[in-house]
Amino acid sequence: MSIIRNTRSRLLGAAATVVLGALSLTACGDDGSGSRNEGASTADVSATLAPSAGVTSAGASSAAGSTAAGSADGVSAPATTAPSGIKPSAGAGATRPAAKGVPTKVPAASGKPVTCQGSDTKVVAAPLNRPVNHMLLTVTNTGSKTCYLYNYPELRFTGAQAVPPVIKDSVPQAVVTLEPGQSGYASVALSASDGSGTNGRTVKSLEVYFSGRSGVGSVGTAAHPPLPAKGVYIDDSLATTYWQQTMDLALAW
Fold first, then answer.
1. pLDDT value of position 220
2. In the Cβ-directed half-sphere of 20, how many Cα atoms lie within 13 Å?
3. CB of 221 within 8 A of CB of 117?
4. Contact 220, 145 (CB under 8 A)
């Protein structure tokens, strides 16, 4: 009986030693290689296993999704700066390109429309190569109100005794309407292209009068567009078109 008790005591002691040893290893963090682990956390292990450079497609998708979600949640996206030299497109009331001699500032329309006249327009008279012996009149609304170009320009060249006749077939389908900054046109046949005209002469000044709605007489002040220094040649075949909304329509006659 004494032998049995001694044997059981030795077995129990050995087992206790094994248990205590295991507990000691767990507490010390011994990894079995003889070096001591100071208790690395799960997060540290995950960081060690993650790739140091490059993101997997799954990671990229997750990041993109996070960005989109942030924007949807009301987070403002970074402001975009336009490349140098690129300007925003112009809106109403902005400056737009125009032909030489024509104002480029485009004021906003205001008030009740009026009849176009010399005080609120700028008129340019430009001799043309084609059609031959023709001149183009361009009238631009420089005022702040919409204006109407009624009928045709009443022209008075140097020493003229009467207003040149109008080419009746050139009557427009509607009254020419000019918003501030817009232009209307008329072409002037200065002389006969075949030389058949009579009383030919060179003139160096021109006055342009504007017709009223009634078509009887002129209204307001006249415009005085400069002519070339050498003047222009006219004869008795002198005639003008009605005011037209576009240059192409004016040059068709």
1. 93
2. 6
3. yes
4. no
Q: Is the pLDDT of residue 11 over 60?
A: no
Residues 168-177 have a mean pLDDT of 96
* Cβ atoms within 10 Å of 117's Cβ, excluding its own: 22
Residue 108, pLDDT score: 58
Which of 20-29, 198-207, 227-236 has the least mean pLDDT? 20-29
| Residue 167 contacts residue 241 (beta carbons within 8 Å) | yes
Beta partners for residue 232, in sequence order: 203
| Cis peptide preceding 131, ω within 30 of 0 | yes
Cα 174 to Cα 54: distance, rounded to the nearest angstrom: 69
* Element containing residue 220 per DSSP (H, E): strand 218-223
Instruction: Catalogue the E-assigned strands of 26-146.
Output: 114-115, 121-128, 134-141
Tell me the pLDDT tens digit for each residue of 98-133. Answer: 444 444 454 556 689 999 999 999 999 999 998 999
Q: String of b and e for 170-202 (b: at least 16 CB within 10 Å)?
A: bebeeebebebbbbbbbbbbbbeeeeebeeeee
Question: What is the token pair recorded at 121?
Answer: 């327009």
pTM: 0.57
Taking the C-alpha atoms of residue 213 and residue 216, their distance in angstroms, rounded to an integer, is 8
Separation of alpha carbons 171 and 201, rounded Å: 28
Residue 238: burial class (beta carbons within 10 Å; 0-12, 13-18, 19+): buried
